[in-house]
C-alpha cells in the first residue's frame, strides 16, 4: 500500500515539469489526484496516461471562481480534498528597470495570490474531514537571492514562505498542516535548450555538483502530504543540493 492511500489531492501546475513529477508520484503512492494547469493538451495527455486516479482540470490559479470550481470538481469526483500542492508558478529573468508593472503583477498574481486563493478555497474541504496537508512550493530564492534574480519572482517566493507559517498557525487546530518546499536548480525542460557549458558551470556552484531530478523534490512533497509527517507544520524544507548551507 502506498503512503498516500486514501488521500485526495489537488496539484496545481501539474501538466509538465516539476508539477507532472508530483502528479505521477502521488498516483504511484495511491492518491486520487485532481491536477490543474493552463496547458490543456499536455494535461489531458498526462491524465490519460495515468488512468482513473488522475483527472485534469484547466485552471487559472489567480482566479477565485476557478478555485471554487476546482474544489467542487474534486469533491464531486473523489470526495473532500485533504492535500493541496500549490505548485503553479511563473518566473521571468528581467532586472527591475526592464520589468513592466504588468509583468510584476502577473508574477505576484500567480505565485503569491494563487497560493493564497488555493489555501482559502481548500480549507473548508479539509475541515470537513479535520485532516489535511498543504504543501506550498517556494524556492531556494526565498532564502538567498542571486545577483541576477528577477525581483517579482524573488518577492513572490519570499512571500510564500511567510504565508505558509501564518496559515500553519491558523489551521493547526483543525488538523491541517502547512509546509513549504524550496527547490534549488532542477533538471527540467527549461534547461534542454540552454548552452551545456552554462549548465555545467551552474552545476559547479552547487555543493553536490549536480542538478536535482524533479523526482527528488516529489519524494519530499509526497512525504509532507502523507501521515508520515504528521507533526511537521509551519516548516521550510529545502531540496537544493546544499546551496543554502553554503551561504
Automatic annotation (TrEMBL):
The keyword Oxidoreductase belongs to this UniProt entry's keyword annotation: yes
Domain of life: Bacteria
Keyword Ligase: no
InterPro entries membership: NAD(P)-bd_dom_sf (IPR036291), SDR_fam (IPR002347)
Gene Ontology terms describing biological process: bile acid metabolic process
Molecular function via GO: oxidoreductase activity
Family, per entry: Belongs to the short-chain dehydrogenases/reductases (SDR) family.
Protein name: SDR family NAD(P)-dependent oxidoreductase
Organism: Salicibibacter kimchii
Amino acid at each position: 500500500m502506498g503512503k498516500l492511500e486514501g488521500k485526495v489531492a489537488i496539484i496545481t501546475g501539474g501538466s509538465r515539469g516539476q508539477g507532472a513529477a508530483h502528479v505521477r508520484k502521488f498516483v504511484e503512492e495511491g492518491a486520487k489526484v485532481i491536477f490543474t494547469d493552463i496547458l490543456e493538451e499536455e494535461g489531458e495527455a498526462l491524465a490519460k496516461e495515468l488512468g482513473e486516479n488522475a483527472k485534469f482540470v484547466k485552471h487559472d490559479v489567480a482566479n477565485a471562481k476557478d478555485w471554487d470550481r476546482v474544489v467542487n470538481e474534486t469533491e464531486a469526483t473523489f470526495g473532500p480534498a485533504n492535500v493541496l500542492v500549490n505548485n503553479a508558478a511563473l518566473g521571468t529573468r528581467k532586472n527591475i528597470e526592464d520589468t513592466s508593472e504588468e509583468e510584476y503583477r502577473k508574477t505576484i498574481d500567480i505565485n503569491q495570490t494563487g497560493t493564497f486563493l488555493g489555501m482559502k478555497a481548500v480549507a473548508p474541504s479539509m475541515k470537513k474531514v479535520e485532516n489535511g496537508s498543504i504543501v506550498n512550493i517556494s524556492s531556494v530564492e526565498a532564502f538567498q537571492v542571486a545577483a541576477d534574480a528577477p525581483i517579482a519572482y524573488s518577492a513572490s517566493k519570499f512571500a510564500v514562505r511567510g504565508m505558509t507559517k501564518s496559515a500553519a498557525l491558523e489551521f493547526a487546530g483543525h488538523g491541517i498542516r502547512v509546509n513549504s518546499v524550496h527547490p534549488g536548480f532542477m533538471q527540467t525542460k527549461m534547461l534542454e535548450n540552454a548552452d551545456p557549458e552554462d549548465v555545467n558551470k551552474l552545476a559547479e556552484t552547487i555543493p553536490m555538483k549536480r542538478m536535482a531530478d524533479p523526482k527528488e523534490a516529489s519524494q519530499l512533497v509526497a512525504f509532507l502530504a502523507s501521515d508520515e509527517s504528521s507533526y511537521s507544520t509551519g516548516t521550510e524544507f529545502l531540496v537544493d543540493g546544499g546551496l543554502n548551507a553554503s551561504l
